[in-house]
Amino acid sequence: MRKLKLSVLVSALFLLIGFSTNAQDAITILKNMDDVMYSPKDMTGKTKIILIDKAGKEKTREADIIQKGTDKRIFRFTAPSSQAGIAVLSLPNDVMYLYMPAFGKERRISSSVKSQNFAGTDFSYDDMESKPNSEKYTPKLLETEEDKYVLELIPISKKSSYSKVIMKVHKTHFYPISAEFYDKGNRKIKEGISAYIKIGKYWNAQEMSMTNLKKNHTTKMIMSDVKYDTGLNDDDFTVRKLKQ
């Protein structure tokens, strides 16, 4: 009887150790991914946005992006003229502003509407937010494939429109490869794919795509003219700058 109790205790201990190690590995993987995505001091670049409907018809837009650290970003459309000037400012503490030139003033984006799509794309305001994933999600390592880790990410915020995100992370370089987004009913609603290249010492998301599975609509973002560590300062990320 004592041997049986000891055996059960040892088994339980190994299960707990295994669970703790698995959780720690998932946290480390997610933080390593954040380090890759947010390692530059700052970044500037241009983006070509291609909207593809279910019939395969394409619409093209252009935008500029500037980013500093892990929590400051401005995304601004530059073309076509009907979209030019529309911009989103992402700041620390989940603060986001939208600027619409037609109205001539900024509007703070509340947490309740961050699940809405940004300017007709398949990326939500939440997807566009500049914030480390390790601060947005609680990770779990589901499996390890030959060249990638598979993580289950549970949103920390109860206001998130996602119930979970299944993300694949490159096993060696720790950049995100793909992501599946699930709604509160646990239905897969979006799929994202990323292609990274190395520019100098940093990994850059050269192309990202997001597909809305219900609408069969895809948005591709293709980065160009990327520059790192140019000396952007905090004054470049203000509401005043957003409106310029």
**Helix segment tally:** 4
Reported by name, the CATH topology is: outer membrane lipoprotein receptor (LolB), chain A
Question: For the residues shown, what is the average pLDDT?
Answer: 90
- The span between the termini is 77 Å
Q: Can you characterise this structure?
A:
The structure is a single chain. The chain has a 13-stranded antiparallel beta sheet with strand order 6-5-4-3-2-1-13-12-11-10-9-8-7. It has a single domain (3-242), classed as outer membrane lipoprotein receptor (LolB), chain A. Helices cover 20% and strands 45% of the residues. The model is unreliable at 3-21 (pLDDT under 50). Strand 10 (176-182) and strand 11 (188-199) form a beta hairpin. The chain starts with a helix and ends with a helix. By secondary structure, the chain is α+β, with helices and mostly antiparallel strands. The protein is built from 4 helices and 13 strands.
Summary keywords:
244 residues; alpha+beta; outer membrane lipoprotein receptor (LolB), chain A; 13-stranded antiparallel sheet; 4 helices; 20% helix; disordered N terminus
Brief description of this entry?
With 244 residues, the protein is an alpha+beta fold.
